Amino acid sequence: AQKITQTQPGMFVQEKEAVTLDCTYDTSDPSYGLFWYKQPSSGEMIFLIYQGSYDQQNATEGRYSLNFQKARKSANLVISASQLGDSAMYFCLLQYNFNKFYFGSGTKLNVKP
Amino acid sequence: DAGVIQSPRHEVTEMGQEVTLRCKPISGHNSLFWYRQTMMRGLELLIYFNNNVPIDDSGMPEDRFSAKMPNASFSTLKIQPSEPRDSAVYFCASSRDIQNTGELFFGEGSRLTVL
């Protein structure tokens, strides 16, 4: 079965601290992609970061980095120096076989001042 | 550049009415996706088009749902007749070449409420 799992329904982090959001996936396809999206309370889906299965380096985009551990099939999102505006739902997305997509159930992040 | 544009942003309708949601993908993108988001089921892929051709509609819940893409710049998702359980946020997303670029951009969503 191909699937993706986010085990943390909710997380709290103190402002300015780093936080890791977990994502594990399961696919037998050697070529796949992993995405992270942010969904604030306004509802839109905002693309954060992408990791391809053949990428040698962990993806980074500003304060976002993806801790990609291929053998463990995990693709955790690390947000450094959390800001109040980071409070939102975060979704992990697995893509394989070009048109197959699975979203995780999401993690609600609350950044405390 | 404009992002993925969806309309309407909000729609409230009565059970049995026809609902049409519209999407304009990012210019130059050749793949278009329709997703539905509910509290119970999370985000679900409904249908996917590539070069205006429906490739995979296995996520379309039932015959009441239909989607078209008459050209590269426009797609519709139609529900006829609508039911209260169709209430959800419907997202459209587009991609130029997802396997090589990792790009998948979403519109702001259409929030549908069926009374």
Structure, explained:
The complex is a heterodimer of chains A (113) and B (115). By secondary structure, chain A is mostly beta strands. Chain A has no helices and twelve strands. In chain A, strands 2, 5, 6, 10, 11 and 12 form a six-stranded mixed beta sheet that branches. Chain A has a four-stranded antiparallel beta sheet with strand order 3-9-8-7, with no helix packed on it. A two-stranded antiparallel sheet of chain A has the order 1-4. Chain A starts with a strand and ends with a strand. The model of chain A has no long low-confidence stretch (mean pLDDT 92). Chain B has 115 residues and is mainly beta. In chain B, the strands form two sheets. In chain B, strands 2, 4, 5, 6, 9, 10 and 11 form a seven-stranded mixed beta sheet that branches. In chain B, a hairpin with a 2-residue loop joins β5 and β6. The radius of gyration of chain B is 13 Å and the shape is globular. The interface between A and B is medium-sized, with 22 and 24 residues.
What would you say about this model in short?
The complex is a heterodimer of chains A (113) and B (115). Chain A is mainly beta and 113 residues long.
List the defining traits of the structure above.
heterodimer; A: 113 residues; mainly beta; six-stranded mixed β-sheet; 12 strands; globular; B: 115 residues; seven-stranded mixed β-sheet; 11 strands
Count the DSSP helices of chain A: 0
Q: State the shape of chain A.
A: globular
Total DSSP E strands of chain B: 11
Termini gap of chain A: 41 Å
**Mean pLDDT figure of chain A:** 92
Please describe the topology of this protein.
The complex is a heterodimer of chains A (113) and B (115).
Chain A: E1 3-5, E2 10-14, E3 19-21, E4 24-26, E5 32-39, E6 46-52, E7 60-61, E8 64-69, E9 74-79, E10 88-96, E11 100-103, E12 107-112
Parallel strand pairs in A: 2-12
Antiparallel strand pairs in A: 1-4, 3-9, 5-6, 5-10, 7-8, 8-9, 10-11, 10-12
Chain B: E1 5-7, E2 10-13, E3 19-24, E4 31-38, E5 42-50, E6 53-56, E7 65-71, E8 74-79, E9 88-95, H1 98-101, E10 105-106, E11 110-114
Parallel strand pairs in B: 2-11
Antiparallel strand pairs in B: 1-3, 3-8, 4-5, 4-9, 5-6, 7-8, 9-10, 9-11
